[in-house]
Batch of 2 targets.
Target 1
Amino acid sequence: MEDSRIGLPIGTALDRFIKRFQDDFPYATGELSQLLRDIALAGKVVNREVNKAGLINLSGSIGADNIQGEDQQKLDVLANIRFIRAFTKGGEACAIISEEDENIIDLHNNGKYIIAIDPLDGSSNIDVNVSIGTIFSIYRRLSPVGSPVTSEDVLQPGINQVAAGYLLYGSSTILVYTTGNGVNGFTYDPTLGEYFLSHQDMTIPDLGKIYSINEAGSLDFPDPVNRYLQYCRENEHTARYIGSLVADFHRNLLKGGIYIYPSSPKYPQGKLRLMYECNALSFVVEQAGGKASTGNARIMEIVPADVHQRCPLYIGSRSMVEKAESFHQ
Ligand code: P6P
């Protein structure tokens, strides 16, 4: 079976890429492929709205907090609606876990897949034109198709993911995903309304010099974190922190680096969400040769107890994550 590490050239359209590698899975019946197309389509719509938010009064807050207690942005709500509508129409997903919804969205259909999604991460950056992103994770349901969705269906560890990835709405919009067979990136051409393969078989440098963390919290960081940061400062590292996880992650994926959001008194379990932020990016980074941990344990082996649970996140170049972990031992 040909894997995604060879085969289709740069410039291949996303649709052709998906079909090409679906054909390699004889048992594949096309639902996962269609799910990826649904995500790509919703991403086009969100991209359009993100790119003109200021012109159509879509910037700013709706004046209410979301279930996370965070000031909900108009585009958060819009993006959530777009992705849920795409999955509802597509019919491949039977349930959705969304950062914007307290409860699991049961679509009461014969879908085979569970989606965990952060429709628009980093939304506080929307008003200042900083890159933001969508993060998604896809699982196969464990209970029989057509039966009620169970808690076992939704509380699966990250190692059960069948696909995961992100959309980055930045200087250009890129869709990066894996189905467990390498990582590929597709840049969106809005003049053609299509994504084209631009980053083939992405691999993260094993070592980098970039560390991404909000150092303003250092007075409250666990001691091992501060000792690792001191190591970075003493070893010609450089700090880059956009405040938008997808943007920081993507830069580190390309250049090498580590992103850390540790536990703190304000966030005893860390700030980031296991199901729709940490697991998805962990699948991508592991497939690209990197590593993702809580500082002590592999992210993807955590068995969730709650769909919105948080966890500390150390993610990026393998040697850098292992170095940071060594300060915890
Ligand atoms: P802080 C955005 O709210 C987010 O979830 C990530 O995208 C980002 O990396 C992080 O939180 C920023 O958090 O506490 O540094 O502002």
Target 2
Amino acid sequence: MIRDEAKLRAHYADPPEGICLEDIDLDRMPRHVSFIMDGNGRWAQARGLPRSRGHAAGVNSLREVVTTSVRLGIDVLSAYAFSTENWRRSQEEVELLMHLFATTLVNELPLFHQENVRLRFLGDISQLPQKTREVFEQGLSETEDHDGMTFALAVNYGSRAELVRAARLLANDVAAGKLDAEQIDEDLFADRLYTCGLPDPELLVRTSGELRLSNYLLWQLAYTEIFVTDVLWPDFTKWDYLRAIRAYQGRDRRFGGVNTA
Ligand code: IPE
Ligand code: IPE
Ligand code: MG
């Protein structure tokens, strides 16, 4: 993607100790960076605040990550906002999150227009409360002509559900005679995932220190580099983003082969 170097330098002016823009190689950037945004509840708890305040603070981190991704010239940004398992939380927290998703999207649409960001959702958004669904659908249609960065937000997303859905879609095509079972390969399978058409993430960032995937992009993360930071999501900044990219660029990606260099 085209990157505005002047804007990028301005975005990263005034570096703190230990990290600066020069620490990363702009010619070796990941195309797709994905985030598991975790730790909102603990952030609030540490301050004696209700969990809702942590989620509200997390919105600011996500906005910074969206803007930073555009500045860095990332093609695809994805982020895990609500899992199929998160329905197990209290009704109060679920309702609050659904409301927060809707209001945030309305508030951030101008940013998506300004930065030419195209919105996508990963997951079954048909099962969301009506208001949230309507706002999401409006966000999709209002940004569908944008050809800058793609921002894919995972809401009511579960990787196992996504894989089962892909199998069902393929089975339907076979049953309808549109497809021969022998033709099914990795590409046809990937075409039935919510991430259809997107490259796999090169880098996954998980905040708040948990060393697990929590049912996120199990297929797509097959060879992704994973960066886990103890920083809680509401505290995550553009500098932490640089640290993640610096770590990624220091990795030796072998894809099962042997590095002869
Ligand atoms: C991530 O923060 C946000 C969502 C899963 C919606 P959490 O709410 O999981 O925060 P912790 O893990 O309880 O700190
Ligand atoms: C993963 O976080 C889901 C999202 C960030 C949306 P969770 O907080 O739900 O994951 P677990 O329960 O710690 O595995
Ligand atoms: Mg959590």
